[in-house]
Amino acid sequence: MATGDVGELVTYARAELLARIRGAKQRVWLASPFLSKPVAEQIAAAAEDASAGERRLLTALVASSVQVRALDPGALEVLFDCDFELCSVPNLHAKLSLIDMSWGLVGSGNLTNAGLGGEGSANVELGVALNTEQIATATELFARWWDGADPIGAGLIAEYAALPRLKRALGQPGDYGTPVEVGLPQSLEKILAEDELTALGRGYWVKSNYQRHDDQAWWKRGWISDWRQAPYVIGDLIVLYLSAKDGGPAICPAVVKVTEPSQFAPEWIAEHGDPEAAKQWPYRTMIEVVGEVPIESGVKLEEFGLSGQSVQSGYCSISRPQFEEALRAMGI
Q: Among 126, 161, 196, which residue terminates a domain?
């Protein structure tokens, strides 16, 4: 996350949001006028793993939104049953997530499959991860909205659920223009549902890296580097391991997919990273993130049958069952 005046730009935050909720210790505050039931179920499941006692959803309980299921009363019921306090501000349009005092996101995306980049259903969205000062300001704003909002209880949810359903006009003849290709990465859910032949056709790896204390989510830059040409091929999946060297956490916080194979590119690495690093690790592999958790929620190698010795050469091959065990341990 950025720590200056301007935060990190984010397109889709489903994995990050759920991971942050899962690790929440004090509070989960969410604001979104629209909410879908599948997303509510994911939020509830993540919240059940958290120790945060203060759970709030601020939404806009408007009949027209409910009737087209932009705001699904079934989703409100899921969160209500998961001990979320629910309140309504009918003219709410803000989309805001605040987890403890350590993470915040504001943007265009609602808490829906389309807003969070569900596979096969994605709006063009953009948000920004908030820095410390912005989190404090957003917290004050949320608290002010909440104080003026009206509570939503089980009876009100049932009342709105009984309203007649209406068809949505979106996607009907009369829409103008060509939708933007959003280029969503293949989800881990789809990867884990692959047939056996496809699964066995992939390579699975654990790659050792040094933690960058100045940029803790450096893997989002879209590439990794090695000291020699690595054997990864397009479509391979790599569990990233931050070693204990120089005070590193010795955990695995992310999974990436190879989009271009390893090639010698020291000048490119020097231009896009650290010139000194280009001398030590001159082979570049292009990647995309398919799953991640906050640093503090990463898992040890031992949790899926490895040790630091396993990756002394920089990377090691693992089996599909080991890969799946790593995902289960990471909770993604």
A: 161
- DSSP class of 227: S
Sheet holding 27-31, edge to edge: 9-10, 127-129, 103-107, 95-99, 27-31, 54-59, 85-88, 150-151
For residue range 120-145, list pLDDT tens digits in order: 567 889 999 999 999 999 999 999 99
CA–CA separation, 75 vs 38, rounded Å?
A: 8
Distances (CA, A) of 6 to 10, 107, 131: 12, 13, 7
Q: Which residues contact 326 (CB under 8 A, 6 or more apart)?
A: 206, 239, 252, 255, 299, 303, 304, 318
Query: What three-state secondary structure class fits 230?
Result: coil
How do residues 211-250 score in pLDDT, each as one tens digit? 876 666 788 778 899 999 999 999 999 999 999 887 889 9
Q: Name the band, by pLDDT with cuts 50, 70 and 90, for residue 6.
A: very low
Based on the fold, state whether residues 150 and 192 are members of the same structural domain: no
Decide: 87 and 61 in contact? Cβ < 8 Å.
no
CB 97 within 8 A of CB 126: no
Which CATH number does the domain housing residue 90 bear?
A: 3.30.870.10
The CATH number assigned to the domain holding 234 equals: 3.10.590.10
Pairing of strands 27-31, 95-99: antiparallel
Q: Rounded CA gap, 300 and 298, in Å?
A: 7
